[in-house]
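Appendix B, Record 12. Input sequence as logged:
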Amino acid sequence: MTATKRPRIGFLGTGRIGIRRMQSLLQSGLIKAAALSDPSAEMVDAARALAPEAAVLPDLDALLASDLDGIVIATPSALHAEQSIAALEAGLAVFCQKPLGRTAEEVGAVVAASQKADRLLGVDLSYRHTAGMVKIRELLGQGTLGEVFGVDLVFHNAYGPDKPWFFDKRLSGGGCVMDLGVHMVDLALWALGYPEVVETTGHLFSKGRPIDRDSETVEDYATATMTLASGTVVRLTCSWHLHAGRDAVIEADFYGTAGGASLRNVDGSFFDFRAVHHTGTSSQVLAEPEADWPGGAALDWARKLAQGQRFDPAAHDFTTVSTVLDRIYAR
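Logged structural output:
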């Protein structure tokens, strides 16, 4: 593949998330959808409506045997690590839906396979790519907020997942922390430059009752506290099916000695975000709601792939985030 050639991409899994990422990538013009595979005829038909020239193949093995440069994986979580490793070992770049693995061990194995194969690895941690978080990260990097001592992260989804495997910890790796918390932990660590996390505590609940952190029961409400080497305290709260009076509550607040910054969803939306810089009792808007940011992580991966980029050492950050989740689950 040359730096000027559009990468030929295969799509494994074209359900709700998979087809959205396909649509974003096709609209960008960065890639060519060469092949797709999904066990559902309905999902295949929906994908072919977007990419009528793409070959419809029966499974991953068939995709790997095709003339592809990369693959987008949007399958159930239990399959992510194994499928990603298989694709990397076959010489393909990989973009995978989160979580990349159910444990830090699984994630580390995928990152190691990416490094060994010298192939690009991306994960759909999309909230980094909101205009608001980009602005907040710039403030943090410039030292505008002073010394950051506190971070509050919230992600409540009033509906929760609609697939049974999400509620089987052997298949999902965990509940709302694995599904929603992964985004917020990544967001905070990415914004702060991936500082060392020296202590992690957590409290998990199922249907309003506390459960052991290493329980086989999947949590639907969780709180966790992460203490960084600097002494900064990061607090996470996330849930499914919470009575919060709106579809979603998604917030990231950064508090420093010289100012604060907040990313908040607007009117309960899963997609519309506003970012604000606080100084004392005054606030200045940094960014208003935008259009297609959910595809940002996929587009970033596709641009790098089109430019010929191979293994990116930043992939080790995926393992760092997964290690924090392991600690929340007392693994």
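The longest helix spans residues 176-191.
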